[in-house]
Amino acid sequence: MQAVILAAGEGRRIRPLTRSRPKSMIPVANRPIIAYVIDALIKNGIRDIIVVVGYRKEHVTRYLNQMGIPLEVVVQDKQLGTAHALQCAESRITGDFLVLPGDNYIDPDSITRVMAEKNAMLVKEHPNPSNFGVVLLSEGCVEEILEKPEHAPSFMVSTGIYSLTKDFFQYIRKNDITDAVSAMIKDGKKIQAVPADDWQDAIYPWDLLRMNSRLLKGLVPSREGEASRQAIIQGPVKIGKGTIIGANTVIKGPVVIGNDCEIGPNCCISPDTSLGSRVSMEPFSYIGNALVMDDVHIGSHSRVISTVIGERCDLGDHLSTAPSGELLEVEGVVVKPEFGAVIGDQVTSSPFTVYKNCIVGNNTRICSVHRLISGILPDDSMVI
């Protein structure tokens, strides 16, 4: 059986983190999201895999070339929708096939069940169904799909994962796969609804914290770096090559730390935290429930919780993030999430900065000390 992974989109609602990378390449638990999708397919014996790339395609292609798996890459020149992306791969499809988004996590067992059906959709209940295609069911089959309704009549949503036959292409009239599925249903075709065991999507950047926590649960502990004898390490913790854990540092897993990091001394890392490679934490700093990408510096006496930090950030000492539920408008939608901060790439922050429920754009500079930052700062901002 073949599989088509759609990894051409940007993920606009995940900005600022997708300005320099597609959503499928955001590292969660120190691996790009698309890697977990490929793992689930490989574990089901599927090795004929086509990946459709588009936005920042060089990032995806470079990573796929390093995986050592024979994957076929197809380019969607203009990001016109999921059905259009699938059509870009049509000439390579020879029979029954799976369609999967490259920016969602799905467990291998759910893939096993959906691939056993012809013309089937993986579905899952979600507490915020209006962000997805809401699925109405009748006798185990899909009766109707309502795309992102304002008032959802059901909590059951489409995961965007399908098992299809090649005649599906004759139903594509518009640019989205859900439109083609609706056309099939109107034509009298049955679409079986298959419940998913574990499916994770990140609609907004703070949702990455929940996905990070979930993927860390399967962490296999290992220690390739060096830890001081005075350090305390508990639970599943993975420490990369060249990393140094200083004296009196306490780490409680699940935690993953990349290569060539410098942690401590006298630091504390709490569960559900992933630190990328070449991350440095100065003494007397605390971090927990956080996703930190590569080449980030966190100054001393800092407290970072419920926070996502992009690449190459330099954060001064006595930094603090304060989770709080505030109203934010993202892509025209007003939401009230609770998190500390989402900090984009290459942000520079002065000492004694407090981030409260805020999104900080890429290349932002916080120049003055003792600042409280909340709300949304666009890319290239300067706070003086």
Main attributes of the structure:
Spore Coat Polysaccharide Biosynthesis Protein SpsA, Chain A; 6 helices; 2 domains; mainly beta; UDP N-Acetylglucosamine Acyltransferase, domain 1; 13-stranded parallel sheet; globular; nine-stranded parallel sheet; 384 residues
Can you describe this structure?
The protein has six helices and 39 strands. The chain has two domains: 2-203, Spore Coat Polysaccharide Biosynthesis Protein SpsA, Chain A (Alpha-Beta Complex), CATH 3.90.550; 216-383, UDP N-Acetylglucosamine Acyltransferase, domain 1, CATH 2.160.10. A hairpin with a 2-residue loop joins strand 9 and strand 10. The longest helix is centred in the first third of the chain and has 11 residues, at 33-43. The chain starts with a strand and ends with a strand. The strands form eight sheets. Strands 14, 16, 17, 19, 20, 22, 23, 25, 27, 29, 34, 36 and 38 form a 13-stranded parallel β-sheet that branches. A nine-stranded parallel β-sheet has the order 15-18-21-24-26-28-35-37-39, with no helix packed on it. The chain is mainly beta and 384 residues long.
